[in-house]
Design goal:
Elements lengths: L5 E4 L9 H10 L4 E7 L11 H10 L3 E7 L3 H10 L4 E5 L10 E3 L2 E3 L6 H16 L3 E6 L17 E5 L15 H10 L4 E5 L7 H7 L3 E4 L1 H4 L4 H12 L6
């Protein structure tokens, strides 16, 4: 039986002057999780918010808070976001490697293949620190980082977040070439939750579902629509194979 579809609107697409209202809007619309995009201006070029804002959002909603750290030094900061009220904290595999050992791409970082043992050890430490704070760990990989990079870390987390755009830039088109990586991760790790982030819409969600993903981050596809509840329903319907415009 396929996993139930999880819709996680990204508050990054909401109105930052009304974050509490936007969190409640997602909840009323029937969202399952609320996705919080944390950017530090280093790992990605943009800057968003810190643990204090997560604490405020936590007070505003009962939704599961799915926090995505697009930051350097995840071992230092992940426990802080867990303590602030995140239910899951996701860190990037690329951030486990010093910048000089990463591949520099036009829009971000990538790894060339299997993570070296020092990175694996650090990743396990991050996951353990998140669990020690009583929360769930997840790991993310950028579009050009292969599935092999997380092979030795999947057992330490409960979720893999596959980026289908480069993190830190808005308005990007869904990268169809990443979909086979979703299927590769699903085949190798049947029990892990696979989440997709970037360009998710009724037109793209079905291919990800068929490849093995069950959780979806949707920013403009929910918060920028006139009827958020209808937008969430449209995503669920399309994921199940229904029609979409």
């Amino acid at each position: 039986m396929p996993a139930a579809t999880v819709i996680a609107p990204s508050i990054l697409a909401g109105d930052f002057s009304r974050l509490a209202d936007e969190a409640r809007k997602a909840e009323s619309a029937g969202a399952d999780w609320l996705h919080l995009d944390v950017m530090d201006g280093h790992f990605v070029p943009n800057l968003t918010f810190g643990p204090v804002v997560v604490e405020a959002i936590r007070r505003s909603t009962k939704l599961f808070l799915d926090t995505h750290l697009m930051i350097e030094e995840p071992l230092r900061w992940a426990p802080e976001y867990a303590k602030a009220g995140s239910d899951r904290v996701i860190f990037h595999v690329e951030a486990l490697v010093p910048p000089e050992n990463r591949l520099q791409r036009e829009r971000g970082w990538a790894l060339g293949g299997k993570l070296q043992m020092t990175g694996v050890t650090k990743g396990r430490q991050v996951a353990e620190a998140i669990r020690a704070a009583g929360k769930l760990p997840g790991i993310s990989l950028n579009p050009e980082t292969p599935a092999s990079a997380i092979k030795d870390l999947v057992a330490a987390v409960d979720l893999v977040l596959v980026m289908t755009v480069w993190p830190g830039f808005g308005g990007q088109k869904f990268m169809d070439q990443v979909v086979p990586k979703i299927a590769e991760i699903r085949k190798a790790t049947p029990g892990v939750i696979i989440e997709v982030d970037g360009g998710v819409s009724p037109a793209t969600i079905r291919a990800c579902t068929e490849a093995g993903a069950s959780a979806f981050v949707a920013g403009t596809a929910v918060f920028r629509q006139p009827d958020a509840a209808a937008a969430v329903r449209a995503l669920r319907d399309a994921a199940a194979g229904g029609t979409h415009s």
